[in-house]
Amino acid sequence: MKLEPGDAAPDFTLPAADGTTVSLEAHRGKRVILYFYPAAMTPGCTKQACDFRDSLASLTSAGFAVLGVSKDSPAKLAKFVEHDALTFPLLSDPSLEVHKAYDAYGEKTMYGKTTVGVIRSTFVIDADGKIEKALYNVKATGHVARLRRELGLD
């Protein structure tokens, strides 16, 4: 079931690319941009991650933390972080448990075909742990600029 504004954001604790663990609970009191992407080091996912990296200073100064989640292993995420100088946590969810809790995994249509996989999605979570925005089936290119506009940051 898709999450809606006002819903409680499902809590999680996941391993990060740097070997630490990151929980949503640890970010209470701060707004969080949580985004799910299909695979590290693919063209669209790299573009999206680099857009978040390039906007991170302004997002952070506006009070946001950015967290990226994929099904990739921490080792692959570490290569992605190093290769593209990413400056925010990338989290590993190989069991897809967190993806499913956010309804970011399931049936999707690509190029006219229905498949099952990661649904590129972004959630803005408020300081109290409630969903502020739930954006499903987002495009990798231009997504961060759109999000910045919607959040009143441009």
UniProtKB/TrEMBL annotation:
Transport keyword on record? no
Alphabetically sorted, this entry's keywords are: Antioxidant, Disulfide bond, Oxidoreductase, Peroxidase, Redox-active center
Q: What is its EC number?
A: 1.11.1.24
Q: Which domain of life is it from?
A: Bacteria
Q: Write down the chemical reaction(s) this protein catalyses.
A: a hydroperoxide + [thioredoxin]-dithiol = an alcohol + [thioredoxin]-disulfide + H2O
One Pfam family it belongs to: AhpC-TSA
Named from the GO MF annotations, one term is:
thioredoxin-dependent peroxiredoxin activity
Q: Where is the signal peptide?
A: none
Broad class of enzyme this protein falls into? oxidoreductase
Thioredoxin domain: from which residue to which, for each copy? 3-154
Q: Tell me, what does this protein do in biology?
A: Thiol-specific peroxidase that catalyzes the reduction of hydrogen peroxide and organic hydroperoxides to water and alcohols, respectively. Plays a role in cell protection against oxidative stress by detoxifying peroxides and as sensor of hydrogen peroxide-mediated signaling events.
What is the annotated quaternary arrangement, including any partners?
Monomer.
| Similarity comment: family membership | Belongs to the peroxiredoxin family. BCP/PrxQ subfamily.
The record's section on NCBIfam families has: PRK09437.1
State the protein's name.
Answer: thioredoxin-dependent peroxiredoxin
Gene name, Swiss-Prot/TrEMBL:
bcp
